[in-house]
Amino acid sequence: MKKIGFLSFGHWSDSPHSQTRTASDALHQAIDLSVAAEELGADGAYFRVHHFARQYGSPFPLLAAIGARTSRIEIGTGVIDMRYENPLYMAEDAGSADLISDGRLQLGISRGSPEQVVDGWRYFGYQPPEGQSDADMARTHTEVLMEVLKGGGFAQPNPRPMFPNPPGLLRVEPHSPGLRDRIWWGSGSNATARWAAELGMNLQSSTLKDDESGEPLHVQQRKQIEAYREAWRAEGHAREPRVSVSRSIFAIVNDLDDMYFGDEGNTEDKIGNIDAHTRAVFGRSYAAEPDVLVKQLAEDEAIAAADTLLLTVPNQLGVDYNAHVIDSILRHVAPELGWR
């Protein structure tokens, strides 16, 4: 059994071929698709966060809105770039969104990916301390967030406050108990996967990772998951961790599917550089008739090792078509693989 959700990058464009022309379209359609996915029986609605781009940039209003319109589906991100975040203000936003959704928030965070602008986090007022990198800064912000989410008091109260205070040091409010166990780290390497395990975060592994062995993506991800779980056990955490992988998977069940994705079935993993220092392996897309997909996906070692699968969706094709994409996997593929 697996949890199956969708992951949307939230692109919008005024192209005549796009059904998502504006930021307003992207946000409203994200809510509508989440409602539709819940009705279809999907388990999660996840959203990518990119700054300075025509994509979702501020996730918490969207997550809260989805939480208010749904009752069961998990709501998450994949991922929020921690280089841009004030961890205390983030804890307030996340706590509010989690309480609105009655504890369904699954918050994916990370160092972030290559950006639309040079050092965009500087415009948000952040600067790594001398001798540290922006990646170090992201991990420091994360460590602060994880500590704050424990819910302990740390701030000295005003002796003459505007409103009465509870006794002792004060914490960030609103606090949502249990949210700390639903923080995920989007890891691109084995080392950061182990670091996430040490901090008690769940693991998200995307459709690309650092090429650390020259093997296919799914094999490297399976080894990354094994390294993560080994580190988790070594830390002695009380709960069982969760692991997700993302994939582009399209079941071709009609002519429209074939028109959009018929050529995607022949793709293979690709190797490239995501920056001047990082060689990465980019995962292939899966697109075929359901019986072929079942055979292909049964050989994906990372999917087998994960408990959660996130389906990347082409959001600019509209809510109805993306609901069809999700439904096709849930209806024609997942049962044959024992995921349902």
Architecture overview:
The protein has 340 residues and is an alpha/beta fold. The chain has one domain (3-337): Alpha-Beta Barrel (TIM Barrel). 36% of the residues lie in helices and 18% in strands. The protein contains ten helices and 14 strands. It has helices at residues 23-40, 59-69, 87-100, 134-148, 190-199, 217-235, 255-261, 290-298, 301-305, 319-333, and strands at 3-8, 44-47, 74-77, 80-81, 105-110, 183-186, 202-205, 208-210, 243-247, 249-251, 270-275, 278-282, 286-288, 308-313. It has an eight-stranded parallel beta barrel, surrounded by seven helices. A three-stranded antiparallel β-sheet has the order 8-12-11, covered by helices on one side. Strand 11 (270-275) and strand 12 form a beta hairpin. It is globular, with a radius of gyration of 20 Å. The mean pLDDT is 96. This is LLM class flavin-dependent oxidoreductase. Its EC number is 1.-.-.-. It comes from Saccharopolyspora ipomoeae. One of its GO terms (molecular function) is oxidoreductase activity. Residues 9-255 form the Luciferase-like domain.
Q: What topology, given as strand order, has the largest sheet?
A: 1-2-3-5-6-7-9-14
**Based on DSSP secondary structure assignment, what is the total number of beta strands?**
14
Number of separate structural domains: 1
CATH class: Alpha Beta
Distance between the termini: 6 Å
How much is the radius of gyration in Å? 20 Å
Q: Uncertain runs with pLDDT below 50, 5 residues or more? A: none
Query: Describe the biggest sheet?
Result: 8 strands, parallel, barrel
What's the architecture in CATH terms? Alpha-Beta Barrel
Helical stretch tally:
10
Task: Compute the average pLDDT.
Answer: 96
Structural class: alpha/beta
- For CATH, the homologous superfamily is named as Luciferase-like domain
Quaternary structure annotation: single chain
As a percent range, the share of strand residues is: 15-25%
Assign an overall shape: globular
In the CATH hierarchy, the third-tier topology is known as: TIM Barrel
